Amino acid sequence: MIELLRRIIRFAVVIVVAFIGLVMALILTFSTLIAIVFLLVISRLRGKPFEAKEYWMARRSGRKSTSTQGSLNAKDVTDVESRDVR
């Protein structure tokens, strides 16, 4: 009888955790949809079409890329020796 109660409690905990995960996924989905709708409305008000590719290209252009900076200088490199600890 006690084993049956333990299994029922475990099952209830799993169901509650799954439900919490489902709610979190729904919140993420709806917040993403709201953000996309917001971007679409703003782009319509500005008179420009909203394209995801242009948006991400504009976002990336402000960042510095490590591949475009050229080769590394000697003072940019740190020599690190690692050893396994047992």
Describe this protein with a few key phrases.
mainly alpha; 2 helices
Compressed to H and E, one letter per element, the order equals: HH
- Give the biggest sheet: none
Radius of gyration, CA atoms, in whole angstroms: 26 Å
Molecular shape: flat
Strand content: under 5%
Number of strands: 0
List unreliable stretches of 5+ residues: none
Distance between the amino and carboxyl termini:
47 Å
Mean pLDDT: 84
What structural category do the secondary elements indicate? mainly alpha
User: What is the number of helices?
Assistant: 2
Give the proportion of residues in helices: 55-70%
Task: Characterize this entry briefly.
It contains two helices and no strands. The chain is an all-alpha fold.
Write up this protein.
This protein is mostly helical and 86 residues long. It is built from 2 helices and no strands. It is flat. It starts with a helix and ends in a 25-residue tail after the last helix. 0% of the residues are buried. The model has no long low-confidence stretch (mean pLDDT 84).
